[in-house]
Amino acid sequence: QGTAFSLFQTAIGLEAQVRRRTQELTATLADLELSNRELKQARDVAVDANRSKTRFLAAASHDVLQPLNAALLLMSSLDSVQRGAEGKRLCRQVERSLDTMDALLRTLLYMSRLDAGDVRPQWESVSLDTLFASLASDFEPMARLRGLELRVRPSGLHVRSDATMLRRLLQNIVTNALRYTERGGVLLVAGRRGGEVHVRVADTGIGIARDRFEDIFVEFDRCGSPAAGDDEDVSAGFGLGLAIVERMARTLGHEITLNSRLGHGSCFGLTMPYARAPAPRGERHPAHAFGEGVS
Questions:
Q1: pTM reported for the whole predicted model
Q2: If both were cysteines, with which of 139, 207, 286, 294 could 262 make a disulfide (CB 3.0 to 4.6 Å apart)?
Q3: Angle at alpha carbon of residue 59, lines to 56 and 61, rounded to 5°
Q4: pLDDT value, residue 139
């Protein structure tokens, strides 16, 4: 009887402990749910504020750039009436500074449009050979001036992307590669693996430390000291090129990878869907039965 009574008391005590712990757990879960709700509200407010900011900047691009365009026109007129060499030199210097400001503002406004989702890709089948040849034509003089070699390998591949955005994306990567390369050169190549095409931009530049792989895609972050020659160009090296690359790749749904070693160079990779070459203009395709080929 004594043992049974002791067990009864123990059971009552355990039941009280379970009830108390259950109440504590319920209260904790309620507090956690309230905290999560408040965090979600704060996050939504922050997202809305950021979206409103980016949309405002995107919508105000004309008003922001109009005074700067007027200043550029005035400087051009002022330069034309200068008679002395010193006056012309100062006018050109101010004009270059205004050009730099114009390029920076346009870049920031384009980034705001990307963040706001106002840039809609125009999907099409893009020839990488045509794109690579265009980039080689544009950057060959710059590479030759720096004593570098720019090599492009044709692949015959097409990808599904936006031709304008893809060109600007690769243009920024190639510009960055040439800017931070003193000896050797840059290689632009593409290959296919299944339904994906992998584009690689490899250089023999200064390289990037592994712990800075994510930092280089942040605005105004520069991966190091550029090669000699950029100091003369006031518009070079804003630290925005790779930030735009990351945003455009995100908009296009293309994956960016990076492999680099300090002192040995870097290799940026871009993965995108494979696409068939578009049919030549005027070529007629055989008619399909209703519903054929529809998935």
A1: 0.64
A2: 207
A3: 105
A4: 92
